[in-house]
Design a protein that fits this description.
- The protein contains four helices and eleven strands.
- It is α+β, with helices and mostly antiparallel strands.
- Strands 2-1-11-10-7-8 form a six-stranded antiparallel β-sheet, with no helix packed on it. The protein has a five-stranded mixed β-sheet with strand order 4-3-5-6-9, with no helix packed on it.
- It starts with a helix and ends with a strand.
- About 5% of the residues have low confidence.
Length: 271
Amino acid sequence: MMWRLRSAVNRIRGIFRQPVGRGSLYRVESLRRSAGSLANSDSKEKNSLSVDKGIKIYEKRQLETRGGRKSNFFTLRNIVILIVLFLTFVYIHLSGYSVKSFYVSIFIYIVLTLYLLIIERFREKVEIEEEIKEIKTEREREHGVFLDKVKEIDQLEKNQLEDIILKNSEDYDIKVWKVGRATSLLIGKRTPRNKVDIDISEGIYSNLVSRTHGVLNKVNGVWYYEDLGSQNGSGIEKKSDRRKVKLKRNTPIKVESGDIIYLATTKILLK
């Protein structure tokens, strides 16, 4: 009998017992996360509003510092006009509203109207034209600077070296080296103890070329050639004037695509 009563009580307790297992914890955690996300979204909206407000304040200050004049009614001109109008009303009142006072007041009003309609408008037009001219000048200057930069970049790209070509006495190509991403190329003759990037050993007059004859270095996008104290020296033939010039030892000289470097009598073309 007691056993049956206990089982019935346990069943009743099981019906009214709240589940506190893993699912409820997940639900609590999800509710907490959703509440946190809502709070974060509210804070983001507030931050965005504050940022927009700050941007507007900054733009307003920039306009003021750039010369954007704030509209101020109480300028010297407006004060003078108000004084003239006030004195006109006083004159009309003191003259007893006579016909003469009305004519004088009409004349004054006409003069003021013509001043505001013609002289002030003309002055505003002149100021606007001057501002437009200044803006155009500034834009032209910026455009000129931009074009100069574009030309400079274009010139640098044109002067970049892609190939180094070894020529023979009849101006035929003997060997071609790809420059790639190299920034320094040692020119000479390769031996077991001497490693170079551009090996001139295949040239007809390679016996006149030193083992480390010269070097090509790229600095800030510009290529320079330097003779490393070779025995028979180096020369250059610029593509602009095609004059052969003997180079000083250990003195870098700017080179471009189309120039020809002479290692003694061996000719290499930069392309």
